[in-house]
DNA sequence: AGTTTTTTGTTATTTTTTTCACAATAAAAT
DNA sequence: ATTTTATTGTGAAAAAAATAACAAAAAACT
């Protein structure tokens, strides 16, 4: 098996579960505890760990602190990552106001928007004109960006970001973005996820009777 | 092959791509146009369609209007679905302000929050006390809900929603929710997605040299 | 010290998902 | 009207992912 995206997402989930277990006072954990917390099978947990050389003690389980540290290293939590946001609309604003990123070593450093009306210091974080993006990103060597603009603008914004040196994108626009081979793009599409929930609720209602 | 979640997500993407193609003036479409728009292989598109009995003309491709209609029926776009939001924080507010749901037959009808300070008519949509959720949902037979509360509160909120008759959840809390077998839960975790982007950007930098 | 029990780490198996390949067929061209 | 060409629809093959199975090892117990 090769390392795939789902596997990395599971690592993040394990890490979150470990935080909670640690807060509850636990010191060690077994693969089936983690499996239960994350909703997979114990063998999946061990498989994932073995892929990354994460190891515990036979019969003794895993040490939570060590695991958290190792997972942190794998997931790049050893250093702080600067991230920019493009689009100061509903989503962009919500992201800027969100307080949970810091704890994970994610630092939203600036927001950019094409609309002058939104270029204010909205609740702490500066919102700059889009034209300033390129210089800002180059100067600070920012690698990661969030696209929270309407779909029509998304590709254009991406092109600017790429030219500035951005290598990874979290995209909220409901459109497939095109970029070079080595560009990393994850998509979040709330509408689509809702639609999906609706589909399966209806599908279940049909199969299991009303 | 059995119908799985990814397949349904692809159907939604096809539908979105079809809207765009239609707006561009196209009348018919081939599997490789859709494949390109969505980022899959043409054979995947045809396979997905064949699963749902969606059919085109050999050599003639697919009629866009018909496809949109059929996909709409499959995805439950024939009727309007009422959805409630719990949690009037950053995400909840962003969702309430978002204008795109209506077009997809998704109607956010109310928001609930435990915090009295948030129980105002924030920008149009009413925010009710959490205690009123159950009656509201029962009375209007709402089936779908969005959880946008902190992780510690999420399971508790879910339990209330379930007791009120909610059957499908879009969950923004970074925690695994527990519910009955037939409860549909989709999770959106922005932090985790960002972490994922960061991981792969770093991974690529390592393998391809700086 | 030896035995039992529990849990890991890893290989093998199964299942799922994707991709390929190509006959069937409809449109276009001759 | 016949031939050519392009594209679907689907069954077969390949690839990927998840699950099971179990030997190895560490802890607990006797």
What does this structure look like?
The structure is a homodimer of 210-residue chains. With 210 residues, chain A is α/β, with parallel strands linked by helices. Chain A has eight helices and nine strands. Chain A has two domains: 70 residues, Winged helix-like DNA-binding domain superfamily/Winged helix DNA-binding domain (Arc Repressor Mutant, subunit A, Orthogonal Bundle), CATH 1.10.10; 112 residues, NAD(P)-binding Rossmann-like Domain (Rossmann fold). The longest helix of chain A has 19 residues. In chain A, helix 6 crosses helix 7. At the A-B interface, helix 1, helix 5, strand 8, strand 9 and helix 8 of A face helix 1, helix 5, strand 8, strand 9 and helix 8 of B. The structure holds a DNA duplex (30 and 30 nucleotides).
């Amino acid at each position: 098996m090769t390392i795939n995206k789902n596997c990395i997402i599971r690592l993040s989930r394990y890490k979150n579960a470990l935080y909670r277990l640690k807060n509850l006072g636990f010191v060690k954990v077994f693969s089936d505890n983690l499996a239960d917390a994350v909703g997979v099978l114990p063998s999946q947990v061990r498989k994932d760990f073995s892929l990354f050389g994460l190891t515990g003690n036979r019969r003794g389980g895993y040490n939570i602190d060590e695991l958290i540290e190792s997972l942190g290293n794998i997931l790049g939590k050893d250093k702080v990552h600067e991230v920019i946001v493009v689009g100061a609309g509903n989503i962009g604003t919500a992201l800027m106001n969100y307080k949970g990123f810091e704890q994970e070593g994610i630092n939203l450093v600036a927001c950019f928007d094409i609309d002058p009306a939104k270029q204010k210091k909205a609740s702490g974080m500066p919102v700059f004109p889009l034209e300033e993006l390129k210089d800002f990103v180059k100067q600070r060597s920012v690698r990661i960006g969030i696209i929270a603009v309407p779909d029509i603008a998304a590709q254009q914004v991406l092109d600017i970001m790429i030219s500035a040196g951005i290598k990874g994108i979290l995209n909220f626009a409901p459109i497939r973005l095109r970029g070079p081979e080595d560009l990393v793009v994850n998509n979040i599409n709330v509408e689509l996820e809702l639609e999906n929930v609706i589909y399966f609720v209806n599908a279940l209602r049909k199969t299991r009777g009303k």
